[in-house]
Amino acid sequence: xxxxxxxxxxxxxxxxxxxxxxxxxxxxxxxxxxxxxxxxxxxxxxxxxxxxxxxxxxxxxxxxxxxxxxxxxxxxxxxxxxxxxxxxxxxxxxx
Length: 95
Known about the structure:
Layout: H1 3-23, H2 27-52, H3 61-68, H4 70-94
């Protein structure tokens, strides 16, 4: 697959999530739509990390981690923040 297909997939996911956030009135549906938006950003971040970072064969571990894992680390951070956001949002809604 090419970079363009991943970017289109990320944009479609983000658009579906944005539509859900703007059109839904139920708070749980809005939280689910926010998660879809976050997943669109995650797909885009990993795709950009994979396709735009110049790939060279690193000679050390430090060089490999510096060049190849930036988008993946960003995605793990987004997933962590999204999980905390959903847990807090559901706790507020249920209480």
